[in-house]
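Hello again,

I reread your note about wanting to compare the complex against the isolated chains. To keep things tidy I'm splitting this into two emails, and this first one only covers the full assembly. Below are the input lines as submitted, including protein chains and any nucleic acid or small-molecule components. They are followed by the predicted structure of everything together. The single-chain runs will come separately.
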Amino acid sequence: MLRMPEFKYHHPSSVEDAVAVWHDAESAMYVAGGTDLLPNLKHRLFEPTDVVGLTGLPRPQIVESDEAYLVDGGITLHALASHDGIRKELFPLAQAAGLVAGPQIRRMGTIGGNILLDTRCLFYNQTEFWRDALGYCLKKEGTWCHVVGGPKTCVAAQSSDTVPVLLALDASIELVGTGGTRELALRDLYQFNGMDHLAIQPGELLTRVRIPKQPEGFTGTYLKLRTRDSIDFPQLGLAVTATFSGADLSSLEIVVGAVNPRPKGVRGLESYLGRPLDAESIESISAAVVKQTRPSEAIQGDAQWRRAMAGIYTTRALKNLVP
Amino acid sequence: MKSLLTLRINGETKEVAAHQHWSLLEVLRYDMGLTGSKQGCDKGDCGACTVLLNGDPVLSCCTLAYAVQEAEITTIEGLASPEGPDPIQRAFDVCGALQCGFCQPGMMLSARALLDETPKPSDEEIRQALGGNLCRCTGYTKIFEAVRKAADGMERQVPTVYGEAADGFLVLGARGRKADSIAKATGEAIYTDDIQLPRMVHGKILRSPHAHARILSIDTSRAEALEGVVAVMTGSELTTPYCVIPWTPDEHALEPEKVRYIGDGVAAVAAVDEDTANRALGLIEVEYEVLPAAVEPRDALGENAPLIHEVDWKGRERTNNVCKTVSLEFGEVDEGLESAAAVVDETWFYEGSTHAPIEPHCAVASWSPDGQLTLWSATQVPHYLHRELARVLDVEQSRIRVIQPALGGAFGGKSEPFDLEFCVAHLARKAGRPVKILYTREEVFYSHRGRHPMEMRMRLGADEQGRLTAVDSKILIDGGAYHSFGMITTYYAGQLLPGPIDFPAYRFHSQRVYTNKPCCGPKRGHGSVQPRFAFEGALDELACALNLDPIELRRENAMSDGDVTINGQTVPSTGILQCLESVERSSDWKSRWGQLPYGRGLGVACSMYISGTAYPVYPNEMPQSAVTVKGDRSGRLTIFCGASDIGQGSDGMLAYIIAEQTGVNPDDIVVVSSDTDLTPVDLGAYSSRITYMAGIAAQQAGLAVRTRMVESTAAHWDVPPEQVGVALGHLFDKSDSARQVSTQAALQLAEAAGGPIAESGAYWTRKVGGDYRGGTIGASPAYSTTAHVAEVDVDPHTGIVRVERVWAAHDCGRAINPVMVEGQIEGSVYMGWAEAIMEAQVYREDGLHTGPNLLDYRIPTSVETPDLVAEIIETIDPGGPFGAKEAGEGPLHPVIPAIANAIYDAVGVRLRRMPFTPERVLAAIAEGQPELESTGK
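Full-complex prediction:
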């Protein structure tokens, strides 16, 4: 079977130890659920000398405060999807977590891992042999992006299901490094560069996700386009969150995932606030989503079709949200 | 380096020396011998490796063994208790939810976790909970049934045959368990990769990164020098070419001079472990001269196309890349088309697809000190493998024993020799140690032999009543780099089309072309699934043009028992009318077809398929199949037969027939199959031949045992043999039914009278087929027939096609064990549906496979698989064993055109290119095909 490269395994029992071990090693990698990183190791996309396992850390928790849910990075997607409070108050997040991959992966994969998920590409997530036959690619060992046909830009797609929702909810993350702990808004985490899409420092460990509670009248949904109704990564992920005051729309966020290295927050939605979400608005918003969504063909599915689906899905999502 | 790891497994604390970079799956399987957890995809895409971690199902191939030191791990070996198997295991066993059994340990653990959390799950909850466990055999239908049954409570011990037999029979027609399913359910069945031999080393094959290149030199010296490497080989060491068809050998164990596709093997190594073997591959230096590649058939036929094979199998120089051309004509085709009231003339395209069994190919070789080779392989043709091994290795056949262990799915993908089988044998010979090679999933995709891409132009004419007047078919077949069964494929593409729809004139021209891609071969419904898609789609278009109900049009043209097709094939029995009537009724066709709202549609299609080919792939006068039955004084019978049980249940079929003949309870019958030292030859699991051919052999062998039992009992009672009856478990006096002897006693009487019980039966081919060159190819002693109705929901905004339900009526002659027949129907429908909707083996322009893994090549999950309704039609074939015919491949054919025709009924567009992806459907709708208006929707 496909083998992982040889490495030394560490099993720290505290965050501080984990960070210290990472920094002491020649080239280390954190592994929590392992559902993405182990295949990547088998594909030789990474060849660390040391792996810092996170399953020995204190049991992860979801803590609720007045303003927010504080979710430890090691919480599994299954735990998130089935958490009563999250299901009740932040339903689209539970929905998105419940749509990741298949049942086993949701019980292994963590929210921290899903946020920091490496970008994906048809030319990158392949074996060493395959990539050699291809002539490698810009993101790994090569000089050419086979998606855009050029030497400069890598458009591997951020393919997390939960991230579009977390962005719509204005979540932030807690990162622990050797210099201490810092908070980073999720909207500042992602960059439009498939080779380096995360604005974090080497060795920083994601320990917690802060998700603000939403005002009364909050509603939202996550729609996922994929071939199979299980296992598959999204061909398109659409998070829509909104707040209604009576019939009037008082907030609206739309984030499109699985299109580019950075999830796409749709702009210009303010103009629809303060009035009911009528058919005309829905049509106009959907058109705006199509206009602003430019999927790359880094992942499965015709780009133009996926772009059109962003509009169709927006219409369907919005129609369902109207109170 | 290994260190000591402590794990809690199945309630026990175990210490094991394990590598820190090994997955839990590897430690379980290879360090601890818990081989019930299976390896299918390498990297978390298939679920076969599922174990429970603190009660939660997880993928052990994507879990580091060292990361779960604190957890309670449950493997399939930990499910059973001293009282017997877990209810979920027994339910899978009883419901026929295990065919090959390879995905099921993981599946059952997921099901166990579901029931622990939700004791009475809904159907939707069952589908969702199993959504990460891919099954390739069952279409999930019987798995859902098993989970529901386990939830309802399941007794732990159940007899082999638990249902009511058909009228007048002891066991035939009764629902029963598969011969091997409880061993598979408990993880005890041994598959090839489960074999570990003392001193065994691991082999790996170096593969070409070029689609077409000349090998200028290979330097293996650095690999040989690497510590831990025990043998290295290149193609120059085994230069005899091979092929499953003996007169067309065109490939080598490893290619000595040229590589012809990305993935072609050039060298192999054996080393103390897989990591060392991989490192050694990296040290082999191959100098290539890269040649222009012909990746598409049209390129390969072009004027300046590079020659993929410079010489043919007789050593003659080639001038083009044509592998095989077949042109045949029967009746007055042009007149038929000219006189027709309606003619359909269109081109269809089938994109290739692959088998994707969950078990990757694997082989193990071991030589005795006396030079005797034993080769275990995941093959479905041990006998053909035996012959080719002898030729290529240059060893007497009598020095070779081939054993097929339990097999984790095949579908035609393991029906010829593969490079790894020759390589393990040769490496083991060189190393003086047993060698194992297990393909990675990627290698399974490269070895391929899947369904050929075909471009099919078909012209069909019909008169005003819908009677067909003529069929003209021209097919271009993309063969890939080697011959495989290519000659037969080329014939099958034309020869298998006539029937169950009859037509009076037929011309076909089919041509298979070499291309620089992995070699195509036989996949379930070899050669005929693609033309059937075109033909049955064309029939629908004809019905539309003539304003006829498509079921009526098919009835109008249906064949009858004993009819001879236009190409000379005699069809002894056909259930086509009953099949059509069955699906017409169950789908409520008459009140729904053409009348459902826009976006919803019904489509029909039918087909016919062979029950084995009349001629073996090498000419000989010996039987195609044979069975020997040995009786023991204990009352037990052992059946020996070379037939390959690849999950379809042929072992159980043999046990049923022997039980029927002898009265011995199926619980007292054991089957030894597919071992060339122990079993009489059967040619293998291909062309749907086993039930018919091995079934007849078993029928004869069983009759011989029965005769001895009856005659010696009659002598013992001093009555004429006619007076002795056989019931299940005993023989009785027909004039005094209270007078009985057990079957055990009857076997002892027979042994006392005539010596040990060992009786044989055999099947010889009867002469069938057309009297012309090629007329015997595709000729079969019997043909199954099938009709399907598919119901689809097409989203006209997204193009997404959801197949809601398929009603599949299949005429299998006699259903020996209905559970197995239903399983074959459901599995076939699932596989064809998957090809129609999502599967495609696609390559880049440079010949590189676009995604040789089970994440990019999508095979369906339990969640989106349609409701599959299997309807058994029994016609009782005059030649088949107790009237039985095939059920394993025929039921795949109609589903693809039935879906295409249903899409037309739903949204008024014809999909003539597969698969029917949302992009294609939406584009067809957007093009606003003129048919849209004519449907009135």
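For quick reference: Residues 303-321 of chain A form the longest helix (19 residues).

B.
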